[in-house]
Amino acid sequence: MLTWTLEEIQISRQVCFTHLEEEKVKELYHIWGGIPCYVLESAQNEQKQSELNKAILTCDPNIFRYVGEVYSIEDNLVYIYTNVPALLEEIEQEKYTEDDKSKEVKREM
Q1: pTM, full prediction
Q2: pLDDT value of position 8
């Protein structure tokens, strides 16, 4: 599952997690990134937040050498994105191409 943007997290907070303060959610977003279960669902669970902090401290920095494998639960906390701008560019290009094809078909009719 992809991580959420701060905007997506805040929208969810406004709709489903109204008991959470905006600043607290921002703080947790900056710590845990866009992982909704950590930022929203576990926001007020001190035990879960403590477990997450301990997990971060026990992460092996060498996990960045691993490709496609998970060696422990702590390693699940790290998300690595590669080539995101290139992927977004491809998606935009596909959308542009599909729109152009659609316009050409309409013109021919």
Answers
A1: 0.51
A2: 93
